[in-house]
Amino acid sequence: MAKKNQLINREISWLHFNERVLQEAMDENNPIIERLKFLGIFSNNRDEFFRVRVATLKRIIQVNKTTEKNEPQNPEKILKEILNIVAEQEIRFNQTFARIQTKLRQENIIFLDEGQLDEKQGDFVRQYFQNEVRPFLFPIMLKSLHSPDYLRDNAIYLAVELKDSGGTKDNDYALVMVPTKHISRFVLLPSKGEKKYVMFLDDVMRFAMGEIFRPFGFDTLQAYTIKFTRDAELDIDNDISKSFLELMSDSIKKRKKGAPVRFVYDNNIPDALLKRLIRKLNITQTDNLRGGGKYHNFKDFMSFPKVGPPGLQNPKTHALLHKLLKVNNSILAAIRKQDILLHFPYQSFQYIVDLLREASIDPKVRAIKMTFYRAARDSNVINSLINAARNGKNVTVFLEIQARFDEEANIYWTGKLKEEGVKIIKTLPGHKVHSKLLLIRRKEQGGNIYYANISTGNYNESTAKVYADDSLLTANQEIAKEVNMLFHLFESPYNPPRFKHLLVAPYHLRNNFMKLLNTEIRNARAGKEAWVIIKLNNIVDERITRKLYAASNAGVKISIICRGICVLVPGIKGLSENISIISIVDKYLEHSRLFVFANGGLPRYYMSSADWMIRNFDHRFEAAWPIYDKQLQQEIMDILQIQLSDNVKARLVNVEPNNSYRKTGSSHRVRSQREIYEYLKKLQ
Questions:
Q1: Residue 246: its pLDDT value, please?
Q2: At residue 326, does pLDDT exceed 90?
């Protein structure tokens, strides 16, 4: 097989992943409100894809060069294929939304638009508009718009055609932003018996917005939704007179004025208005122009209101207790006895907040160190660190201000922590710190004892309710001291220490995984037990992909659970016939990275913050850490085996037909996220 056919293009693979999200919206076994939310997730994912990946492709095309020598296709062809796939997905998206609306009507949940209101509903909507909506409306007359820079990226606007029925005034045009940042996109109208009525905020505006323009002689109004997406990549200046924080702040401001990469609009918009908009917004033929339906920005469905009976949503599950972490008992004392593994969101992230609270008031705790990539908006974790600093602890934080789309929030938290006396480790330009680390130093019997928490996911109590991650709590001094070495490394990255237990990027993470795979290759050739189980979000790195192919060809059995991008092609005779790949998309976002190597019958277990991508291996500070405790090893293996047995939410990756649901031949339905919950429940 030609080399170019052995790897799937990463952008195309990402679209295949988003197709799996769309499948969840299409799945009639899912509760109907949850299906709406998956439409929102799909739409939000696609927006970010255009803002980053498509924008990058367009930049490459403009300078007529490729970033990867071994790209299977050139950028122009890739972009064309992307737009074809997006167009096909959009058809299925709209069909799915129409079916969901029908199902909602059957459940007495009815969407109304501005032309379907009775007199009483009309009065309610006018009143709602006056009290709640009108204060946030600031129309821009299209003829007065001199630059598109003043318009917000990824917001929706109503392009308004204004007419005077008497014919005394010429037609005029305006743009009005739909203020979803301040008001829910969905307005609940008064119920009638069992019937619940929902109205898009856009339609509320269409119904009542004429009042704003009537004083200017316009009595007829037609409004059409438009939306444009900007290039969100940051261009950072090289002004040596500014700090990196200042440079990042300037770049964020520039992002808000980034070049358009996509423009979507209501197909019913008059041609004259569309042409004016394209000219005013500097949209070119190289941008992705797409007509569509009346509504856009379906990402708002992620926050669809709770309406109707409980059965229309996923049943609530309560976070499980951990048997070793007793209520009102010392968490540090529990960690001192043995390693503990937490599984979010099955178990509560509150354990981490409680650990920090305990450390902040424990008189024997001298110092706390922590990394942040994405913090919650109102972060109890950061507030715990502030409290620790106020209690006299030495608190050190690395807060990654280069985390895409979280830069502004992280810059804010950096300033807040500095004000409270927290030591901030400076950001390393060009290298992001993606490791999730917490270290507590405690004085015990005259010496320093370290307690560490190393996690596959962010210290973010909001996402911890949705992202499925694993988090190790340990007082193993060999590991904890190496976590401390990592913090020193952030401050002095050009003098890396030697690690015996942690595998650290950008120094030797890839090479260590390659060595582990080479061991499996040798064992397979020697007739020994040889297999690998890999769970992560993305596999893109070509060197390690080639090594996986070599391992498969040597007879190593490789089982991969990859949620997102995967460039490997399984099942190629003489190359990858020993590789199987599934992706699980369900209620929770699979986010953990777990690796188990047979190692000739003495399996080696690792967890990590890193996917197998070039950026993780070469441009980020990442860590993988061993699991030595036999009970925890068994726990990890049990969970992996549950996922490998999934025959409800697991899809086959990069085999025809792509994204087909995996069949195991078993009559027993295994939905792994539910099975994992029950498994951990028994361990309480």
A1: 46
A2: yes
Dist. CA 452–CA 440, nearest whole Å: 6
Q: Which CATH number fits the domain 3-312, given the four candidates 3.30.1840.10, 2.130.10.150, 3.20.20.140, 3.40.50.10320? A: 3.30.1840.10
In this structure, of 129-133, 313-317, 492-496, the range with the lowest mean pLDDT score is 492-496
Other CB atoms within 10 Å distance of the CB of residue 361: 11
Nearest to 453 by CA among 516, 372, 559: 372
Gap between the Cα atoms of 373 and 464, Å rounded = 13
What radius of gyration do the chain's Cα atoms show? 27
| Mean pLDDT, residues 524-536 | 97
Please give the Cα distance from 369 to 397 (Å, whole number).
6
What CATH number does domain 331-500 carry, 3.40.50.720, 3.40.50.150, 3.40.50.300, 3.30.870.10?
Answer: 3.30.870.10
Provide the pLDDT for residue 260. Answer: 66
- pLDDT, residue 215, reads 86
Q: 24-29 — which CB contacts under 8 Å span 24+ positions?
A: 24/585, 24/586, 25/93, 25/96, 25/100, 26/92, 26/96
Residue 73 pLDDT level (bands cut at 50, 70, 90): low
Distance CA 260, CA 282 (A): 8
pLDDT value, residue 418: 85
Structural contact between residues 468 and 592, judged by C-beta atoms closer than 8 angstroms: yes
For residue range 218-248, what is the model confidence (pLDDT) as tens digits?
888 899 999 877 765 544 444 444 444 444 4
Q: In Å, how far are 13, 468, 582, 586 from 563, measured between CA atoms?
A: 11, 11, 8, 10
Q: What residue spans define the domains of the chain?
A: 3-312, 331-500, 504-682
The closest alpha carbon to 21, from 673, 659, 674, 664, belongs to: 659
Residues of the chain with pLDDT > 70: what percent? Answer: 91
Q: State the catalytic residues.
A: 434
In angstroms, rounded to a whole number, what is the distance separating the alpha carbons of residues 47 and 70? Answer: 27
Query: Do residues 341 and 635 make contact, with C-beta atoms less than 8 angstroms apart?
Result: yes
List, as one string, the DSSP characters of 333-368.
HHHHHS-EEEEETTB-THHHHHHHHHHHH-TTEEEE
- The per-residue pLDDT for 249 is 47
Q: Which has more confidence, 221 or 469?
A: 469
The span from the CA of 530 to the CA of 532, in Å, is 7
Q: How far is CA 499 from CA 398, 489, 607, in A?
A: 20, 11, 16
Q: In whole numbers, what is the pLDDT of the chain averaged over residues?
A: 89
The model's pTM is 0.89
Beta strand 531-536 with 593-597 is antiparallel
Q: Do domains 3-312 and 504-682 have the same CATH topology?
A: no
Q: What mean pLDDT do residues 637-641 have?
A: 98
Closest CA to 587 of 44, 30, 32: 30
Give the pLDDT confidence score for residue 362 in this predicted structure: 96
**At residue 454, what are phi and psi to the nearest 5 degrees?**
-125, 130
Q: Where are the beta strands (DSSP E) in 131-210?
A: 140-141, 157-163, 172-177, 186-192, 195-200
The CATH superfamily assigned to 504-682 is: Endonuclease Chain A (3.30.870.10)
